[in-house]
Write a structure and sequence with these properties.
With 128 residues, this protein is of the alpha+beta class. Helices cover 39% and strands 25% of the residues. The strands form two sheets. The protein has a three-stranded antiparallel β-sheet with strand order 3-4-5. Strands 1-2 form a two-stranded antiparallel sheet. The two termini are 28 Å apart.
Length: 128
């Protein structure tokens, strides 16, 4: 699903890409009691390359409010449609993923997206 993305307001250029999510899982902590699993959700462009990190675009922000901020790279790349793009990418990744820790992280992020009504989403994207 190739996607047209708007650049910054100054440049007003269009970028065509095939965005997808690349999910990284890492364990931190020295003992089993302090061990913590972290999942990093990265947006990649499958048109650039099939291998990570050559196809790296940006990191998907954890906070929903950050998705619409133009100060965040994800917001700069996807513009006003950033919340919609994040939702589609997370749903697609959730359907394919089998690892329980990663599925939990994806579900948590989708719930955070759903907590905002359409009017709140519009306010977020216009505010920044």
């Amino acid at each position: 699903m190739p996607r047209s993305c708007s650049g910054s307001k100054k440049n007003r250029m269009k970028i065509i890409m095939m965005p997808s999510l690349y999910l990284l899982k890492k364990h931190s902590g020295r003992s089993e009691y302090s061990r913590k699993t972290e999942v990093q959700v990265v947006v990649v462009d499958l048109d650039k390359s099939k291998q990570y990190p050559l196809n790296f675009v940006c990191i998907l922000p954890q906070a929903t409010a950050s998705l619409g901020k133009p100060s965040h790279i994800f917001g700069k790349v996807f513009g006003e449609s950033s919340l919609e793009v994040a939702n589609k990418l997370l749903h697609r990744a959730l359907k394919k993923e089998k690892d329980e820790d990663i599925r939990n992280e994806l579900t948590k992020r989708l719930r955070a997206l759903k907590t905002y009504s359409d009017s709140q989403i519009k306010m977020l994207t216009k505010k920044f």
